[in-house]
Amino acid sequence: MGEVNVKTLKQKDRTFWEQTYVTEFIKGLGVTMKHFFTNLSPNKEDRDTRTVEYPDEPRDYPDRYRGRHRLMVRDDGQVRCVACMCCSTICPADCIHIEAAEHDDPSIEKYPETFVIDQLRCIACGMCVEACPCDAIRMDSGVHVSAFEDREESFHDRETLMDLGGQSMAEQGGDHIPSPN
Amino acid sequence: MAEDVSPTIDQDIHTEPMLLQMGPSHPATHGTVRFNLTMDGETIVKCDTEIGYLHRGFEKESEHSTWNQVFPYTDRLNYVSPLLNNFGYALAVEKLLELDVPPRCKWIRTLMGEISRLTDHLTATGASALELGAMSAFLYCIEGREILWDLVEQVTGARLTVSYGRVGGLRDDLPENFEEDWEYVRERLYEIHEEIRTLLSRNRIFLDRTQGTGAIDPETAIDWGFTGPILRSAGVDYDVRKDHPYFMYDEVDFDVPVGETGDNYDRYLVRLEEIIQSIRIIDQCLEKMEPGPVTADDPRVVLPEKDDVYNTIEGMINHFKLVFEGIQVPAGEVYSYTEGSNGELGFHIVSNGTGKPWKVGIRSPSMIHMGGIHELLEGGMLADIIPTFDTINMIGGECDK
Amino acid sequence: MPKVTINNEEIEVDDGTTVMEAAAQLGYDIPHFCYHPALSIPANCRMCLVEVEDNPDLQPSCHMPVNDGMEVHTESERVVKARKSVLEFILVNHPVDCPICDQAGECKLQDYYMAYDAQESRLRTEKVDGVKVYPLGPEVVYDGERCILCTRCVRFCEEITETDELTTAQRGDHTEIRTFPGQELDNNYSMCTVDICPVGALTARDFRFKCRVWLMNTTDSVCTGCSQGCNIHLDHFRNEVQRYRPRYNPDVNDYWMCDPGRYTYKEVHQDRLEDPMVGDNVVNWHAATQAYVSTMDEALDTFEPSERAMVLSPQVSCEGLHQARRFADEVLETDRLYMGGKPGGESDDLLMNADKNPNRRGIEYVFGGLEAVDSFESLVDAMEAGEIRVLHMMNKHIPTTDDALRARFVDAVADLDLFVLQAMHRGEMVFPPDHRGDFPAADLDDPTLVELADIALPSSSHAEQDGTFVNEDGIAQPFSQSFKPLYNSQPDWQIFGRLGDEMGHSLSYRRLADLREEMFGDAEDDAKPKTLDDKQSKSRAPADAATQPTPAE
Q: Is there a cis peptide before residue C432, judged by omega within 30 degrees of 0?
């Protein structure tokens, strides 16, 4: 069981030197000047600044970073998405617009004729990835949504979303022989 | 002579109080809030607070979302401590469901919650320093906050808009190198704490501005509903983590700092001490945590494993029903409260038995504080508004929802 | 009258009542797949098994008749376990198709799994393959893997339409539904099989992949395809009608509706007249009303009452017709009324009526008898004789398929002094539409009635207003508004009110309820269907079905 104590913080009276401000001034300058001289070092590793020379020095995003969406593909390069509308239903910002259509191949049956993500509305919550039952959409591209000149550029359509590549890990209809738990 | 003339002149000068609007757009009020001040010279006679400039309809929007779709909204309440909001809401819904989450989930919630508390306290302290002119202190605090954001990003995928909590657990477990990264952050935070203390704690300028200003006595604080660092600075030792423990707060050792006078300097000291205590709690969490599941074992609440969803019809049906219908929470009402970084963060949730909440009401500490901030400001001077407002730490998103 | 105790509650029921029906009367819903209240009972799905005291086996409650003194438990441990087993077996070969299956959102397997099962899969081998996307007929597509062989569709074709197209083919776990050799599922009610299919094995080609069920909102409405007035659920999403589904009404349509009727939803959005027009110019309502007032004032001075006429449309709601009557009496001061509407068509002995207008008896009721309204042909004769100079026409439909008569009418309209058209559609809709409800392209050389109109006013469909239709049997049926009037249209009753008020008469009503009170007299509750005369309604359901709660479909 944890132990919780109440600790009363007493305000100390000022000493003579604190009142003159001289010692505090010097101590404060000491802190800032220490950083200043450390950062004057010509060797970048010795400095303690956290400046990143972006975009010349790219920043690596962690694995779970939620960046630009990408639509995964099947073995033959067709889009994995079957327009089930789970992602557009769960999106809190209502930014995914999908129109489904009949696919010629009866084993695929359904595909998204239109799949547009309005990146300006997107809040990068990642719920679409969580809701997808086919590993068809991911946000692990490691690239953030880039700046745009024209608003239409931020309406990412199906082709744009498939550009970043990636093969889906889920087969349509499931693995025919499931693995034991 | 002059002495003969001045008394007569004094009697003839007519003065009246000045109305000064410290408008919603003000560089020192970080967050949009409006003070209509009635001033007598530099003294504030009456302070009329107006909030609501950041009202975004959180509570109404929640009524149109499923239970899990509310999490992105909770991120945007107190946006410098999003994880605390996430977990507070998740706890409330789990109370309605009468669902218990596994221990590892509670450890991680405690841990990540304390990280969020750290980010909020660092921001509050830094911003207070900045507005009193200590810009270096601000930058050091922000550096501390940056490395914490990096840690949060590793775990959740985003720095601020995390959506990490879920009803019945969490989105993911901690990544593998979390403990390693925490070591570095911990050391750096201790250094930053020391630097802030050196720069500010005995700095005469800082002391003159914050000592004795914005003071409140415990009775008034309780009357106006203050909680959190403000109440503790006044001397009342109320902390939800201590008095009504939740998650794993009853398994860790920590101290609850309280002040004596309730002025701005006490609030600064309380926050600085809470930074140390939060680091202590995080260390204990990492030590005591055992491997295990991070979501409850209830298929009617938690999404099934992706492997089952892709390959079995049972998993697929489960997934589909939870996504488009939402979790069916039994009808009822609950008020669940946790210790937010600014005070008691309460969620009053009413369910009508469907997959969407009927009503989500939030007891946001910042709004309650803004209700009583005039008690601290009236009688003081205009310049005292700045440190007082900073140490109250009103976060606009939490205040206005 | 046997007494039965279900879950420790006693109830007395009629002889022959099944356990499931008795449980429904007490408010207990027993899950089922193959049982349907309007079809015979095969008891093949075994989902409705309940525990009967003193009986070692679980009994199918859909089939078992109640005996006096019987004690039944619907939630005991054995029953709960049985339900899980039944679902497990059904799901063993069920494909992982939820993302591509239209039934998601109204699928019994999904609902029952979450309510009663929620177990993980124990399957360790491959699932049986079946046929996918197999057209059983022009409207219905079959998926053999999803089929749970409840045989509801087979029984529907045998018992309701009596056309016997479907049967089960092959054996064991390779059994599938097929049509008999040389046959297609092409009867007029084929899409009802899609409604009754509890899973996504049967899907309607028209609705396939159009909209997800959980995104749609549903309103109670009435089909406008013919005078039967089948009750429907109107499913709509973002102000667009997605489909009709039949709504249970034992006095009118039972659980069914015909395919051509289902397709009439397309008329709500096809080729609408969007804005008021004065001549060739699109104007707003204010300008159109002003133009109407000035031209009509002049026309009322110039022409006698007998030179003014009105064409009534039996497509319009009773409320619209009530206002039309007041308008004809008070503003136009004429009694030259003519019947418009869609021309007649195919009929059968089930639900389809030859009269393709929903509200002819509404005209009869509002105008006190059909003698008050003359035929369309007599209108054309009168127009050609020069007797009619001012015509106010409701809706563009011309009640004839005779091209010559149609051409005569269009020519005669061109000679009128004032032609006001109050219609939903813009283009010429040549009847009949094709089987899918699409209208063939009109001959664009002929001017349309909208082009000929001096003033054209856009009216709203039945989906955009509250109203009442009186069906062929005299039953007054209310329908509800699904969404606000589209484009710039207004409901007919409001248009008449506006025009009448501007002409100096007080014709408008602030609330539809006030209008209804005046129209229906002392009816206490306008929402209840009310038979307007003593004629016996043609009921097709068991006599007591309407009085007691029945098991769900």
A: yes
Euclidean distance between CA atoms C289 and C504, whole angstroms: 12
Please say whether the beta carbons of C52 and C170 come within 8 A.
Answer: no
Rg (CA), chain A: 27
Nearest by CB to residue C125, choosing from A82, A106, A177, is A177
DSSP state, A68?
S
Interval C169-196: pLDDT, tens: 999 889 999 999 999 999 999 999 999 9
Would you say B304 and B315 are in contact if contact means Cβ atoms under 8 Å apart?
Answer: yes
pLDDT of residue C540: 32
Segment C384-392 shows an average pLDDT of 90
Rounded to whole angstroms, how far apart are CA atoms B68 and B356? Answer: 9
Q: Where are the alpha helices (DSSP H) in C399-448?
A: 403-414
Q: Give which of C439, C415, C435, C414 is closest to C427, Cα–Cα.
A: C439
State pLDDT tens for residues B166-181.
999 999 899 999 999 9
- Structure token pair of residue A145: 């949504």
- CA-to-CA distance for C205 and B235, rounded, in angstroms? 72
Q: Which of C97, C100, C131 to mutate to test the interface with A (most CBs of A within 10 A)?
A: C100
B260 CB within 8 Å of a chain A CB: yes
Q: Token match 């003294």: residue?
A: B43
Q: What is the pLDDT of residue C48?
A: 94
The pLDDT value recorded for residue B60 is 94
> Count of H helices and E strands in chain C?
14, 24
Among B347, B92, B353, CA closest to B101: B92
Cβ–Cβ < 8 Å for C320, C496: yes
Note whether A110 contacts C209, CB cutoff 8 Å. Answer: yes
Does pTM top 0.80 for this prediction?
yes
> Closest Cα to residue C72, out of C22, C131, C137?
C22
**Which residue of B lies nearest to C116 if distances are taken between CA atoms?**
B300
Q: CB contact, 8 Å: C126 with chain A? A: yes
Encoded amino acid at A7, one letter: K
Query: Which long-range contacts does C180-187 make (Cβ < 8 Å, 24+ apart)?
Result: C184/C136, C184/C137, C184/C138, C185/C136, C185/C137, C185/C139, C185/C140, C185/C157, C186/C137, C186/C138, C186/C139, C187/C157, C187/C161, C187/C163
Identify the pLDDT of residue C421. Answer: 92
What is the average per-residue pLDDT within A80-100?
A: 94
Contact between C216 and C203 under an 8 Å Cβ cutoff? The reply is no
Chain B contact present for C91, CB below 8 A: yes
Distance CA B280, CA B275 (A): 9
CA distance C470 to B29: 66
Beta bridge partner(s), residue B333:
B350
Option in B237, B251, B306 nearest A1 (CB)? B251
| DSSP per-residue codes, B281-336 | HHHHHHHH-----SB-S-TTTSPPPHHHHHH-HHHHHHHHHHHHH---PPSEEEEE
Q: How many interchain CB pairs under 8 A, A with B? A: 153
Q: How far is B48 from chain A (nearest CA, A)?
A: 31
> What was the pLDDT predicted at C173?
85
User: Does residue A121 or residue C521 have the better pLDDT?
Assistant: A121
Report the phi/psi class of residue B216: left, alpha or beta, with left for phi > 0 and alpha for psi in -120 to 50: beta
- Calculate mean pLDDT across residues C464-481: 92
What region, left, alpha or beta, does residue B91 occupy, with left being phi > 0 and alpha being psi -120 to 50 degrees? Answer: alpha
Tokens of C58: 């679980």
Task: Looking at the complex, report in whole angstroms how far the Cα of residue B350 sits from the nearest Cα belonging to chain C.
Answer: 22
What is the reported pLDDT for A2? Answer: 80
Q: What residues contact A41, with CB distance under 8 A and at least 6 apart?
A: A47
Smallest CA–CA distance, residue B369 to chain A, in Å, is 22
What pLDDT score was predicted for residue C442?
56
